[in-house]
Structures are given as structure tokens and as C-alpha cells.
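Objective 1b. Sequence-to-structure analysis of Amidase.
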Amino acid sequence: MATNSSKLNIPIFSSLPLIILSVYSSGSPATESREFSVKEATIEDLQLAFKQNQLTSRQLVEMYIREIGRLNPLLRGVIEVNPDAINQADNADQERKAKAPRSQLGLHGIPILVKDNIATKDKMNTTAGSFALLCSVVPRDAFVVTKLLEAGAIILGKASMSEWAHFRTFASPNGWCARTGQGKNPYVLSANPCGSSSGSAISVAANMVAVSLGTETDASILCPSGSNSVVGIKPTVGLISRDGVIPVSPRLDTVGPISGTVADAVYVLDAIIGFDAKEEATREASKYIPPGGYKQFLKPHGLQGKRLGIVRNLGSNFTVSSEVTEAFEHHIRTLRQRGAILLHNFEINNLEAILNSIANGETLAILAAEFKQALNAYLQELVTSPVRSLADVIAFNKKFPELEMLREYGQSIFEMAEATDGIDIDVKAALLNLTKLSRDGFEKLMRGKELDALVTPGYDISHVLAIDGLPGISVPAGYDSKGVPFGIYFGALKGTEPKLIEVAYGFEQATKIRKPPFQA
């Protein structure tokens, strides 16, 4: 890496702890809060500590920075810490002291990490984990960042991610990021952290932050959340603006919260939803937002009367261990005991056709065409950038192969995408086929059986949810004999987040399975 940095003529951060220490030293020395610990602290815990003068936002930011400095060299869940985080914390403390109206908001003074493909117009980079975008300048904060700042939240830093949302090549491991290296599962370092919002999930799981933002095209919130024993909400596509997010597919991409609890995820969800004039998809989806937001659906007895389809079989390529199967059956009994109405052995009759569309490359061909168009538009809007097109990114990787591990992992999807020529007749036909598969399969069954949600032990349900922008929630469900976490997954129809939240929160309150990792 050092060899190429002189040729590249941009600063290469070879040691993340140096970034963290430089940020940390920019403020005054850390102030210990002996009465308070950030370990497993929820947003409600933090707000109560603020109100009782046990904690300031500055102290909280300093605690998280110390935790990042201690754990991140091993776990690599964070790319950068925001040099302005201390100043933002001081402002929050001043607002709270002055009883400013904004200080009453739920996220006021709360630090949040955002995935490195979400633009921040500050001193940090927005790179999708790649050196190709290092030192580029975004035109504005992403819509979701603006919403967080308006809510009084503190942008603590950028979470690492599977580089380019794991869309440069499928050969690279989940959680591998050019700028930080391999992200590690904090429960079992050798276990799969999953992707592409790996850093967002790792950081929350290890208590380096209470809440974070991830993004998902297919499985990128649900999978890392389950794999790292945290909660992840993948909302209905369009419920949250993607403006300022480095894209894969404008048709499927969504931003979503990752946290230690369902309640914390919902608090963040409430802060970032809403219509955005720059994002047409939010116009239609905004009709789903209930008056008063989503926190009203955090009901301890939310499972009562819910009709749930139990999906054990997700196709011939889907397998779960006997330990996961045993735990799932136990959870099914819990769902029933809490008043849910269960439809067992619920099967999606065209599931194999959906999975075949992935296996035979039909879905990838669509995504490749969408990615080229969307990425080129994003890059051309940057104020300054070393790259202005997908072709430029491919050329960058070839010029500096060691930086992007090109020899090990290649860039086959990038090259496939570059060879596309827009949304042609074949792509349009494939899109119609996917829409039909979703409408005539999962969606028809859900409506026909009058189900509120389906329940499954495998994140593979994300493929079914992805093709038509449907929502899902992952909740911690247990740990195998080696200590590796696994989740339980709830999915439903567009706009049905209220029911999903009731189901997920009801399950969480009935089980309370999550525990902090030994590594932290």
C-alpha cells in the first residue's frame, strides 16, 4: 500500500487508530463518567442519563471514541471518526442546558455512525470503502444525514462496509473493505460478519456506538444484523430517501437503521423517513407513514392476534444448522404463547423461480445495467472526484491493483456492468418477470392468507423481499455452540412496517436474547 500512495498522490491512511487519535486529541482530555457505562446502553438510557446530569454528549462521544480506539484495530468496523463530533456534542450540551426545543427530540445528543456510502458534507470521506473515491467531495449531506442533524443527532463517523456494497465482485469476503481490511465478527472473529453493512452491525454489536445506519439492496442490512446479534430494519423502498447514497439499484436500494434493540431502530427510523423532493420514490411511499410515526407500535404484546406464516424451507440451496432449527422451533412456541396465530409450513410456490432468477444471472444482469447508469449519475454530481464514471473506477483499480486487492478478488461485476448499454429490451423483460414473480408468489399468498408477516430462520428471505422493495426486520435469535450469533427474520408487504414492528418488538420483549460479545 505504501508503494502505491506516492503514485496515487492522495493521502493513504495506513493506520485507522492514527485517525481516531488525531480526532480525539483535537478536543480537550476525556472526562470520565464513573456513574455511566456505554455498554449495552440504549437511546432511552442515554437520554435519561442526560436528564439526570449523569452524562453529557461530549462525555458520551469521548467514551465511544475510546471504545473505537480500543476495539477497532481488531474489529475494523469504523473507517473514520468525525473530526467535528466533539463540537457537535458541545453544541448539543449547550442546547440541552438552554432547554432549546430541539433538545426534547429523541435523538438529540446521540452519536450515530453512518455507512461509508452515505454522503456527509464535512471533513470525512464518502468512499463506499474504496480508495477510488478517497478525497472526492460530495455536493451536500445525504437526505438521511440532514434529517439526523435536524433531530440533533451527532454524526460520530463512517462505518466500514463490504467495498462497493459487495458489488465489485462476489469473490471478496463479506466485510472486506479496501480502506480498513477485513471486518471481524465481534462474537467469533473467524465467523462471517456478513455484508455489506458489516461495519454498521459490527460497531453496534461491540458497543462502539448505540445506533448506526446501513443500506440494503438485497440482504445487506438483514444478514449482518442477524450475524452480529443486532436489530436491523430494511424498510419499504422509498420510505427513506436515497439522495446522497452511492447507489447499486435505485429500484431496490434503501437506507435502514441498525441497533441493539427494536426500539432504538424505530427511533432512528422515525427520524429519517419522509418526503424528499429530490427523490421521486418517496412521494409514493410517504403515504405509508402513519401519523405520529412508528414508535407508537412498540407494544410489548404486539404479537397478540397477529397472523404469521412460518417458513422453514427457503429452497434447495437454503440450509440451517440443527442448533438454529431447534432454536427456531422454540421461538415458534414462544410466538404462539404470546398470542400469535401461526400458519405452519407456509411455502412460497414460485420460490425456486425467484432463486433461479438469481442463480441464472437474470437478476444480476438487471442490477448491472441499473448500477452503471446510477453510479455514473452519482459520480458526475460530485464537486470534485478522482473518478467520474464506472469506466474511471475500473481504470483506477487496474492502475492501483494492490490498493483494491484486484489480483485476489478482481472486478468482474464492474466489467459486466460497464459492458451494458442501458435498460434494453432484455432487461425490461427481466424486470417484468421479477415483478410478476413477486406479485403472483409472495404477495398473493400474503394477501390470500391474510398474513401480517412471515417468520423464517434464514436471511435468504431477503431475496424474496428485495425484488419488489418489501420490508423486513432481523432480531437476535440465539448463539450456536461456538458462540456465533443467528437471527430470526420477519418480512411483510409494502408499507406494513407498523405490523412488522409490533411483531418484532413483541418477540424481542418475550425473549431478550441479545448479549454483548466477549470481544468487547
